[in-house]
Amino acid sequence: MLTSKEIMTKNITYINPDLDVEKAGEYLIQKGLSSVPVVVDQGPRLKLVGFLSEADLLNFCSNQVYFDQPNMTVKDLMRNHPYCVGEDVEIFELARIFMDTKYRLLPVLDAQGYLVGVVRRRVVLDKILKLIKAEDSHLLNRVQKKDLHQLVNHRFIVG
To answer: Which residues are in the CBS domain (predicted)?
Structure first.
């Protein structure tokens, strides 16, 4: 089964928690991003400390203009405990997470808790569409087929 490690983007775009919020907003717009991990650089490793989205920025910027709030840094606005996944999360579990949370991007952490990649909702959709179309036979061979009769019967017995 495909896992987050196999489909994640390893070239991670991220921002620093000390960045000015307005500059962070300009950065997201310039790069065409809807959200971005906030990290502290620890040498060759990246420690995830938060997450910033367009919605977070839109809320803050609207209030800043309307209520004349002082400018802040990313660490003042970011979500401190973002939803993360490990490297071994299967594609259908990723799909479920994306459907349940409405997130567009999930940070992927290694066993030590360092950021090693991100999984985009669009990539998960693309891989599942390829499974449906069977365009990518090596993907199709890795999906464990379920017996539909067992699933249906199980549903009626349990439900």
So the answer is: 8-69, 78-137
The most distant pair of C-alpha atoms in the chain lies apart, rounded to whole Å, by 61
Alpha helix locations (H) across the chain? 4-7, 21-31, 54-67, 74-77, 91-101, 121-133, 137-141, 148-158
Secondary structure element (H or E) that encloses residue 51, with its range: strand 45-53
CA angle 82, 128, 102 (to 5 degrees): 30
Looking at the predicted structure, is the pLDDT value of residue 136 above 60?
no
Among 41, 46, 106, CA closest to 79: 106
User: What superfamily does domain 4-158 belong to in CATH?
Assistant: CBS-domain (3.10.580.10)
- Identify which has the larger pLDDT, 51 or 68: 51
113: left (phi over 0), alpha (psi -120 to 50) or beta: left
Distances in Å between the alpha carbon of 44 and those of 67, 110, 117?
A: 41, 14, 14
119 touches 85 (CB < 8 A): yes
Residues 89-116 have pLDDT tens digits of 999 999 999 999 888 999 999 999 999 9
Query: pTM, whole model, 2 decimals?
Result: 0.77
